[in-house]
Specification:
alpha/beta; globular
Length: about 270
């Protein structure tokens, strides 16, 4: 059975106690905590702060299902790569202390002057030690379908380059949808063993090729198909609602969007 969560991108003005209470009230199984240093959690949290955060969600009966990090590995700049590697490893430590099973990382858009082969080589080289460290800590690094790596065949090249790696896939449904991947290729390419987390937000496709976010079920994403595909491969992980309220304040408030999402997904 699928489990439902939301990322705290959806509720930038809520504090942690409110997030835990609302997640329980709305019937969510978990919450994905965004880690960017300006909202809710960050790697600078003290040991006591981490313990209080973990206890807060445990007492509410809501899992901390993931740490949404922002590391990227898409440059030739060694110092920048080191900084991102350090960020990812710090996020792994944070996830371990909070009891979260996964940490999200991006690979990042390929610079125009870099060949696809070189971009894959760099990403694999710098991600591999982080994935190995995560495995030692009991934490799963998940790579999001994002930027130049939304198509399963392209993303798989990074995994192939890393070889026997504990990294897995975060399927961002909208990101993949915008490049024509409706989930069939991704589910057949990776399967439940490799897909460890899922992001969903609905959108309308516009004539200029852009996409406008909308309430769940009111847009173009084939959400019933997505749910059927996940259940068909035996996926039992989290489907996390990524309502981008922090970046788009004009969107509906979390008090409306969050309960509507879980009600809609369960109705399918």
């Amino acid at each position: 059975m699928l489990k439902y969560a939301f990322m705290t991108l959806a509720c930038p003005n809520w504090d942690l106690p409110t997030i835990a209470a609302r997640a329980k009230e709305y019937g969510y199984d978990g919450v994905e905590l965004r880690c960017m240093g300006d909202k809710h959690i960050d790697a600078a949290m003290t040991k006591d702060e981490r313990e209080r955060c973990k206890k807060l969600f445990a007492d509410a009966g809501v899992a901390i299902c993931g740490v949404a990090g922002y590391s990227r590995f898409n440059t030739e700049d060694v110092e920048e790569l080191r900084n991102n590697q350090r960020m990812l490893m710090q996020n792994i430590d944070l996830a371990r202390d909070l009891g979260a099973p996964t940490v999200r990382s991006f690979i990042g858009d390929r610079p125009k002057d870099m060949t696809p082969e070189r971009a894959i080589e760099i990403a694999a080289e710098w991600l591999l030690p982080c994935c190995a460290y995560g495995a030692m800590q009991g934490i799963q690094v998940v790579l999001e379908t994002h930027d130049d790596y939304c198509l399963p065949a392209v993303l798989k090249q990074v995994f192939d380059k890393m070889g026997q790696t504990p990294a897995k896939v975060l399927w961002d449904v909208q990101n993949a949808y915008t490049v024509g991947e409706l989930g069939d290729g991704l589910c057949s390419q990776f399967g439940a063993d490799m897909i460890a987390h899922v992001h969903i937000r609905d959108c309308h496709s516009k004539p200029d090729g852009q996409h406008e976010l909308c309430m769940t079920g009111e847009g173009d994403l084939p959400l019933k198909k997505v749910k059927t595909l996940l259940e068909g491969i035996g996926y039992t992980g989290y489907v996390s609602f990524e309502w981008e309220k922090m970046w788009h304040p004009e969107l509906e408030e979390p008090e409306e969007a969050l309960p509507q999402f879980i009600a809609y997904m369960k109705s399918l």
